[in-house]
UniProtKB/TrEMBL annotation:
This is Glyoxalase-like domain-containing protein. PANTHER family: BLL2707 PROTEIN (PTHR40265), GLYOXALASE-LIKE DOMAIN-CONTAINING PROTEIN (PTHR40265:SF1). It comes from the Bacteria. Residues 8-182 form the Glyoxalase-like domain. Transmembrane segments: none annotated. InterPro entries: Glyas_Bleomycin-R_OHBP_Dase, Glyoxalase-like_dom.
C-alpha cells in the first residue's frame, strides 16, 4: 500500500520553539531540515524535509526576527506548548474544480486565497490555498493548495521517506466522508484527535505525532 495519501502535498508540524524542534528532528533522524522561508507579517517561518516523491514535512513556528503580528499566527502556533502535527495539505490537479466538487458533495473547504514567501535565496514562492480558518477544527481534513507555476518546495530537499501516516478521531465516521469529498483518504481509528507519522532514516524509523 502507498504510504502517501492520495494527493498528499505536505504535513504541518507546528511548534512553539522552531530552533529546538529542528534540532531534535536532526538528532533523531540524522537529517537536517532545510530552511524554507519567512511568512512576512504572520510572525512565522519554516523548515522543510522531503517525505519522498513530492510530499514534504513543514516544521513551522514563531519567527524571533519578526515583530509580534497583529493577529494570531497560523496553525495555532500561539496556543501550543509542544510540537505536534496539526494538519495536512493536498494538491489536486485543479484547485478550483476540487473546491467546487467538494462543495457539491457536501463539504466546503473554504475560500481560496493567495499567499507568498521569500526563499532563503530571495526568490519569491507563490501559491493559492483554501482558507484554514474555515477548515474542519480537528485538522484531520486537509486544506487544498496549488503551487501554480512556482517550483514545488519539495525539490532538492533532504529526504526522510514517509513509511506510514495514520490518525485518530473520536468519531472516525464523521471524518471519512469529508476526506472522500476531497478525493483523498487517511487511515483512521477511534481515539483522541491526532496524527501518527513514521519516517525512515539512517538511524531507523522515527515516529512523529
Amino acid at each position: 500500500m502507498d504510504s502517501h495519501p492520495a494527493l498528499l502535498d505536505h504535513l504541518v508540524l507546528a511548534t512553539p520553539d522552531l530552533a529546538a524542534t529542528v534540532a531534535d528532528f536532526t538528532r533523531r533522524t540524522g537529517v537536517a531540515p532545510a530552511p524554507g522561508g519567512v511568512h512576512v507579517g504572520r510572525g512565522t517561518r519554516n523548515f522543510l524535509v522531503s517525505l519522498g516523491g513530492t510530499g514534504y514535512l513543514e516544521i513551522v513556528g514563531p519567527d524571533p526576527e519578526q515583530a509580534t503580528p497583529d493577529g494570531p499566527r497560523p496553525f495555532g502556533v500561539d496556543g501550543i506548548t509542544a510540537p505536534h502535527i496539526v494538519t495536512w495539505a493536498i494538491r489536486p490537479p485543479d484547485l478550483d474544480a476540487a473546491v467546487a466538487a467538494a462543495r457539491a458533495r457536501g463539504y466546503d473547504p473554504g475560500p481560496v486565497r493567495p499567499m507568498s514567501r521569500r526563499r532563503p535565496d530571495g526568490s519569491l514562492l507563490s501559491w493559492r490555498l483554501t482558507d484554514g480558518d474555515s477548515a474542519h477544527p480537528s485538522g484531520l481534513v486537509p486544506f487544498l493548495i496549488d503551487w501554480g507555476d512556482t517550483a514545488h518546495p519539495s525539490a532538492g530537499l533532504p529526504v526522510t521517506r514517509l513509511l506510514s501516516l495514520t490518525a485518530t478521531a473520536p468519531d472516525p465516521d464523521e471524518i471519512r466522508p469529508l476526506l472522500a469529498a476531497l478525493g483523498t483518504g487517511l487511515p483512521l481509528s477511534a481515539g483522541p484527535v491526532g496524527f501518527s507519522c513514521t519516517v525512515d532514516s539512517a538511524r531507523g524509523p522515527v515516529e512523529l505525532r
